[in-house]
Write a structure and sequence with these properties.
The chain contains 8 helices and 15 strands. With 253 residues, it is an alpha/beta fold. Bound molecules: zinc ion (ZN).
Length: 253
């Protein structure tokens, strides 16, 4: 399995897209989070990787939580798929229950077509095939098994383990440093961990307390612009990086 890193920024980045990725599957892409300006983000990923990163080929979108640097592009992608590139049908939209519970509350004011007290004309299901992730069992998305775990963040947020049976990706989601969370992720071949260096986020000095064999397979995203990090085994990723999940190695494309 291959991971295309589409964004590595935090909510305040002025030079990188919000932290997000695409996983290649035979059925299309699984998008992990969908920050603002997604069409520009996918175009930029196509240009920097040379790969066919087509938002019309997204099979499923996983939303870890509803902060804008992770969910701000859902509306654009919804309208794009419904009106500009309708050929692929409705993408799946996946979130854990407490996240999905407020999804339409976030989207409805700009997407339900309601005007001046009228009844809403559209609902979430008109744009997406919604599905619930579970913290108790794996859910099948485009042939991959997806497990979720609640993180420690300011709003309900999940981390992810995504496996095709041969290789497994661990995705921390936005989270404070929590040893139990990293232990849960540790069965993955490649772990993408946030390093937001702020309250409700993990800090590099905390991640550096992890065993070195674990640090070897961790790559960092959600790092603030201009953060000056000492060297560590944990490589800091850039927008447009492509990684082989099984080997946790960054490909040059
Ligand atoms: Zn967040």
């Amino acid at each position: 399995m291959r991971l295309i890193v589409t964004g590595t920024g935090d909510a305040f980045s002025n030079s990188r897209f919000g932290s997000s990725s695409l996983i290649e599957t035979p059925k299309g892409f699984i998008a992990i989070d969908c920050p603002g300006s997604p069409l520009m983000m996918y175009k930029q990923a196509a240009l920097s990787t040379g790969l066919d990163v087509d938002p019309a080929a997204i099979h499923d979108i996983i939303v870890t939580h509803l902060h804008c640097d992770h969910a701000g592009g859902i509306e654009t992608l919804a309208f794009y798929r419904k009106y500009i590139a309708p050929g692929g049908g409705r993408p799946g939209l996946w979130a854990a229950p407490a996240v999905m519970e407020r999804m339409w509350e976030r989207l409805a004011p700009s997407m339900d077509g309601r005007q001046f007290g009228e009844e809403p004309k559209s609902k979430l299901e008109d744009y997406f095939a919604p599905g619930l992730l579970s913290v108790e069992h794996a859910v099948d998305l485009a042939g991959l098994q997806v497990r979720a775990r609640w993180t420690r963040h300011s709003v309900p947020t999940v981390g992810l383990l995504i496996s095709d049976g041969d290789s497994t990706l661990g995705w921390s989601g936005d989270t404070e440093f929590e040893k139990a969370h990293v232990e849960w992720l540790s069965e993955a071949d490649l772990i993408i961990h946030e390093c937001g260096q702020a309250a409700k986020h993990a800090r590099l000095e905390e991640l550096m307390t992890l065993p070195s064999e674990l640090q070897e397979k961790i790559k960092l995203i959600h790092v603030p612009d201009g953060a000056d990090f000492p060297s560590s085994p944990m490589e800091r990723l850039s927008d447009g990086d492509v990684l082989d999940i099984k080997t946790a190695v960054r490909e040059t494309t």
